[in-house]
Amino acid sequence: MKIDLDAARAFFAAAPFMVDLGVTPTAVGEGTMTTELRITPRHTQHTGLVHAGVMATLADHTMGAAAQTLAPAGHWVLTAELKTSQLRPARGDRLVCEAQVLKPGRQISFTEAQVWTLVGDERTLVMKASATMAVTAPKA
User: Fold this and answer.
1) How many CB atoms lie within 10 A of CB 53?
2) Which site in 13, 23, 118, 134 is 20 to 30 Å from 35, CA atoms measured?
3) Nearest to 25 by CA among 84, 120, 98
4) Residues contacting 88, CB < 8 A, separation 6+
5) What is the pLDDT confidence band of residue 2, given thresholds at 50, 70 and 90?
6) Class level of CATH domain 5-136
7) Phi, psi for residue 48 in degrees, rounded to 5
8) Could you state, in order of their start, the residue ranges of all structural domains in the chain?
9) Residue 114 and residue 124 in contact, taking contact as beta carbons nearer than 8 Å
10) If you average pLDDT over residues 120-127, what whole number do you get?
């Protein structure tokens, strides 16, 4: 399925939870997706750091969208397995997630992502993630 940036933005806009979090795609390619989230107080936990669940959700949906770029027309990608590793606490202005498909397949695809926090122009890697994505066939 060929997806350009406008189609990726429409794909994310159709997901209410992504809209609620404020996640937007900023770049898309064949088997890749980059997204961004502006950090606000609602994204933090009691310590003022970004909640790990926010970063995991960002990585999950971004990896799924990267896999969706390679899915056959009419097929959808769903997360079958997700693993995250938080490398350090996240605080800053924005989160950026870069996801790529490591191995596409007819029924499953393997993906990974990196989540970065940005303070001005300074990027710090805060999370690594990997996921197995199931490619679902259209209903007959």
Assistant:
1) 12
2) 134
3) 98
4) 124, 125, 126
5) confident
6) alpha beta
7) 90, 0
8) 5-136
9) no
10) 95
